Amino acid sequence: MATGKKTSIQRKEDESSCPVCHERMEIFAVGRCDHTICFRCAVRMRVLCDQMYCAICRADLLQVILTSMYCVNFSM
What is the set of domains in the chain, with CATH numbers? Predict the structure, then answer.
C-alpha cells in the first residue's frame, strides 16, 4: 500500500529529472529563481524559441547558469 511518502531514492531521482522533458539531468540550467531544468530544454527555449523566462515560474531571466553541480546559489 502506498503511503504517499517518497523514498530517498525517489526524491533523488525526482531532483535529477528535468521537469520539462523528464529526462535525467547531468548539466543543469538555473536562473535567479533557483528553478532547474536540463541544459537541452534551456537551450531550446532560449535559442530556438527566444523564450527568456523560467519554464517553471515564468520569471524573466536575462541569464542562466549551466552547471553540473545540483546545488547552486545564483546571486548577482
Answer: 10-67 (3.30.40.10)
